[in-house]
Design brief:
Shape: globular
Distance between the termini: 66 Å
Number of strands: 0
Number of helices: 26
Strand content: under 5%
Structural class: mainly alpha
Amino acid sequence: MPRRSTDHLVKLIGRMTPAEKRHFRRSVKKNNQVGEVLFFNLFEVIAKSKTYDEASILRKIPGIKKEQLSNIKSNLYKQLLTNLRHQKKGNFTSIYIREQIDYAVILHSKGLYNAALDTLDRAKKIAYESARQHSILAILELEKHIEGLYITGSMYPKAKELKSQSKEALRLVSTAHGLSNLSLSLYGLYLQYGYVKDERDYDFITNYFKNNLPEVDVSTLDFYGKLYLYQSHVWYYNMIQDFPNNYKYAQRWLDLFHDDIRWKTREMTLYIKGLHNVLNALFMAQRYDKFQPVYAELLALGTDVAPMMNRDQMSTFKLIEYTHGINRFFLTGDFEEGVKYVKEIEIAIAENTFDWDLNRIILFNYKIASMYFSHGDLDSSITLLNKITNQVYPSFREDIQCFARILNLIAHFELGNTLLVNHQIRSTYRYLSKIKQLDKALEVILAFVRKIPKIEASNLKKEFIKLKSTLEEIERDRFERRAFLYLDIISWLESKIEGVPVGEVIKKKIGLQERL
């Protein structure tokens, strides 16, 4: 068994819950003499071991010869998946529907045409209830095949009905495919480039969005068609920094689950991501008043449903909970509590508790580094920023890599590392020019940091005021707002001007918002 497949087997066993392992053991014991089943013995050794060691396995199970091990591992992997599939068919509608289709195929092969059609009819009802259009098509194809062989008096009306159903399912599948492809492509562009930075970026993304958006009547779409439509709009408006429209479509996404609560359990991960995108839009718009109720809905989900979540759902939930747990502190300015909060996240990243992808880890490192910076723990901030800037991620999260370098510069300036700042400015200029991320706000910030050693201490406050005024003017340009989404440089400057912590500046802004 190739090394990669072995890794899959070991990870699968490691991810099984105690209940799933008990079910597997009972199943094997019921059907076999356990001592004679080598794949079961292998399962027990791997399940009880902290690491996979073939030499140790061969010593513990004398009945397995080295040349047999690969085949036994393959058999164990198949047995585990078969057993888990049987256990989970009540949790996953798609598994149940496919099982019913398989039963119908067997009944048809035995000449039991009516029984096969009855089985397909039951499966089709469930498929319609859960908007599983691909499954509906598979059922209809098998129905047409059976009806073509088993002639009944109602053949013509039945053929007409099947034709109509197939045509509608094909329409919905085709539309959903177009929308899901657009949604995925836009998300991929966002991961690579982040927010649009100029008119050229805006035109490219807008033309791409409009040219690939299918013409649809929303009222004729099923759940998934609407979901992919709203997703596409969410990614598009997020990239062009139109946060009111980003919020509008994120809320429509979430309302799909509010309008029919059955979808919350059917598509838990998508429901959690809907909450995430509403919260993200509100965070970007700095709407703490609306952020809090949605965040409370997210936390309530963790309290009420967490015990029933599978690993994938829990991984997504913790990702979203942590993301907006951090964002909440950036909105309130309570960085003292914020640095306590992120300790748990740092442990989860170090231990790879939730198998987050590289994009999530980079983003968390940047957010946590920003939290430490805002609290004044500059050394911890720099350590995390170096994790981002010292790695090579070709064509990936260039936006985060860019602003990690800028924040690193500012942190070293705060520490008084003048020589290091001068060296890093040159390398940062080269990097930003290479990836074409050197926009107006960044040029102004870099120019300011470069001339700091020449500024008299008595004039530094005056220079901070001038820089703040310049950046506020730049921020009014819609294509220059991007820098301020990643880096709250204005609040930092206000803290330097007023001689107070950044958190106090943010709390003051919240107070002003509440009075308006």
